[in-house]
Amino acid sequence: MTPEAQVIDITPTTEVETKALAIPEKARLIVVSDNDSMTMADNTKAAIKDMIKEIDSVFKPMADKAFQAHRAITGKWKAVVQPLKDADEYLTGQVKGYLRKLEEIRQAEERRLREEARKAEEERRLQEALLAEQEGNEEEAQAILEEEIYVPPPVVKVEAPKVDNRKYRTIPRCRCIDKMKLIRFVAQNPALADLLDYNSSVGNNKAKSMGKEINNIPGLSYYEE
Questions:
Q1: Tell me, what's the pLDDT at 6?
Q2: Is pTM beyond 0.85 here?
Q3: Do 158 and 110 contact (CB within 8 A), yes or no?
């Protein structure tokens, strides 16, 4: 039988337990009122001390064996579980990396379509202004050119397998890479006074609210988990 599978037999403790439990009952019957009762109390104290030594001699080997078995089991437990945790962390990183890549592709396509739409709107207005100018409506043509351009935000979707996003949730984090730079910057920007007494909790909360914009604060660096 392997050490981690051993069962600790506590049967041998029955005899010593019986002997040990009898002593307190006898001790509490002693009332020290004369020399004889004092001697009896002193002798009983010696008996208690000897009994404790006997109990220790019975239980300590069992406890040592149990500790060794526990250490062996937990060691094997970790050895079996840790590779799975490492593999899970690796796959999480792979999926997160792919999702980030898809998001970058989506944003790039969104920017391309937005710019394309903006240029098309500028061209349309230019033609409209030229037509108004040709018709002698110079003020109208100028107004057309000066009108603020509004381009409806394009909706871009990327195809990806449906997964439980809670498993791959990205958590904004912040680390302080230069405390002195941070202090000097905060001194010039009182609105960021909460960063003066910087700690990980303060930094992470700020990263949650600011996102990657926190990189604009000297001494701080944004990252994700």
A1: 57
A2: no
A3: no
